[in-house]
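Input:
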Amino acid sequence: MDEAAGSPAVSRRIAPQRASLRPWLLLMPLLVFLAAFFLVPLAQVAMMSVTEPEFGFGHYASIATDGFYLRVLADTFATALLVATCCLVLGFPLAYAMAAASPNMAAAMMIVVTMSFWTSFLVRTYAWMVLLGRSGPIAALLDWIGLPHGELLFTRFSSTIAMTHILLPYMVVSLYAVLRKIEPSLLRSAASLGASPTSVLRHVVLPLAAPGVVNGLTLVFVLCLGFYVTPILLGSPREQMVAGVIGQQIEEFLNFGEASALAVVLLASTLIVLGLYHRRFGLDKLWG
Amino acid sequence: MSAPYLELRGLGKSYDGRTRALDNVSLTAAKGEFITFLGPSGSGKTTTLMLVAGFESASEGDILIEGRSIGRVPPHKRGIGVVFQNYALFPHRAAAENVAFPLLMRKMPKAQAMAKAAEMLGLVGLERFGGRYPREMSGGQQQRVALARALVFDPALLLLDEPLGALDKNLREQMQIEIKAVQRRLGVTTIFVTHDQSEAMAMSDRIVVFDGGRIQQVGAPLDIYRYPSSSFVARFVGDSNILAARLTDPAGGQAEIAGIGTVRVPALPAARAGDAIELLLRPECLKPGSGLDNAARLTVDVIVHFGDSALVTGHAGGTPLRARLEGLAAQGISAGDTLPLSWATSSSHVIGRDAAG
Amino acid sequence: MRGLLLSLGAVVLAFIAAPLLIVVPMSFSSAASLEFPPPGWTTAYYGAFFGDARWTQPTINSILIALAVAVLTMAMVTPATFALVRHRFAGKSAVNLLLMLPLAVPHIVIAIGYYAYLSDLRLLQTFPGVILAHTALSVPMAFLVLSASLKGFDRSLERAAMSLGASPAATFRHVTLPVLWPGFAAAALFAFIQSFDETVVALFVSGRDSMTLPRKMFDSIRTTADPVIAVVSTLLFFTVAALVILPMLWRSFSRSRS
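Output:
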């Protein structure tokens, strides 16, 4: 026997799995921060909706009964649905073309989409003011063709088209993510089995693309529901979206209670849509 | 008695506190020995390696090098070189910088470290590749850089975790020889983990066979091959016939096998007549003709020719049997033939019984 | 069918690109209103942008705020991401959802909350107020980017470094950080841009002294349609172009080198 005999190591229990304190220590700063600077202000909105100016659910009652608020909410949902549909209709051919293009071509197309995504939406909103303005190129084109047109700017049309343009990159990226994974050999084998190009699209491509479609629609719909800046700058003052009305309540009337109640309704709508998505697909997939 | 160079004492590991990934693993190794941990995936061989390297901590037991416990020493202070399955070369550093890394961590001056790294790269045949980045090298070259990096700081121990799995067959055999040569030359005590029994046979001084989180057998490659202690080891190491037999005369070495009849087996004085035994008969021990101690008639089902040898599978009176014959001797045999075979009693082994010789 | 889809795709691509490109000629237009095509050319509005503190100050403010947001976000998100990617613990999926929450809440909603909350804290219309709000909003994207890159990280690199004698700190400094730096850089960039572009919260909580560029642009578009907007838009457009295209060039350059 030798120095090893002095070691009490035989069958000594070495701590099994270290207690799970470490992850919480690492998370602590962020969790405290988010609690203090996100959850509390968010809770304050809910609080204000039932305490400003006095305690009660009066704001919710008036939202549920007031024709103006109901119309704004209905308009908002309708617009979000319209924009999401437009994004799908426009986004699908582009994503399909990107998936079909050569890698270099697809990368070049992706650059355009990415640039649009990263360019401030104020810039894109401003660009639409130029395009749709009274002395802009689209009005000039319509005049030249001889098509009668009213005011293009500050209408539901202008805010819808601008929001579609702004949100389109989300849709394209969602669709491209699924379409690029479809093997060309799959399409060829479908064709060799006697499927016409149209039925290949219908029976092979579209079902495989479905997750991307749902993803894109959800993303665009939810983002559109809460859109504030573009409808205010480009839309018709008579057909506001709910975010704009919330801002107006604060800016013009300092009516925090009413604004907060509307905000809670908007938040709840958003969370319901996201919650449905989460139950079916898992929220972590939404942003890729 | 002096302490062994490396000792594993009753290592146990449980991830959930109930099921054991590793149970009572004890082993000693002499300095300079090349030991292979062999076993299927999930057998505990890699877990044991992780415990020795210090990447995971044991639930029970201890690890000692030259009598000193390293069970609680953090991995970066253990001085153990590890070569990983995927090599784990630092992608942002050139080959020479990878090899110099452990020296720099030990505060060696940069110039000296780079010189020593270059020397080490020379030892593995990559003297001109020091400036290459890992992504610019082939699998075999990356493998050698990883080996050089694990050896450059004169580690107390070298651990290799299935390092050849990603290489193709020819390169793998070449690397086996090279690793073995470098290991010999530096005399570093080495633990090699693999699930490939031929690799284990080719490289090791001793093989440790793992299964179900336990050590099944420890021994020199040929001993494990000839005298497996369990049917698991017999099946896992090499090709085998395992025949169920019943002892008729233990001391005299006689047993009865269904379909073959009475055969001679190594004597088992401690056993009793009527005991069921498993007789291991390696396919290459079966020879054509009836010149050896025991005979059987094989009805051929399938014959596969490999050129230098041929594998014949069939049955003898209902007992399945495989025989590996020399290529020329197997010429002309076809399915449906009946083939007289015989084997020497000394080439057979009763599994799980001490009957060496 | 296929041909139709492809040509439609090209049209949509033009639909995406045209509004981005139109701001460039607009910035050199001599017209004081939104007129296209421009009746004449001038660089006067570039001079107006760079020479006017009402424009340069918000630009500087936005850059400072976004830098602070990027630093603060990374300081908190980095350890949190390591905890979430590398550890298993009870409550993990709840924490995951919490970190994503700022992305799910419409900005107008939280903007009201910040307006009330920051004024309670006497931080309304101050730099710290904007920075704190923007940091919360940039957490999800930074977390998504960083965790994607951390999930792709081969942990045997760290084990290798440790076995070679590197302490945990040295392993982080010499291996983890250098290998993951593109992920860290991308996450920080996302945080920076998130803050730099953020408009709605800034409208409610930034003040005269802490006015951000998007707020200045919003006010300007809403009230006067100042042609300087086109200059700012063009500058932002080229900044984004550089940010998007340079990394791509760099990647194809380093690929061709190997």
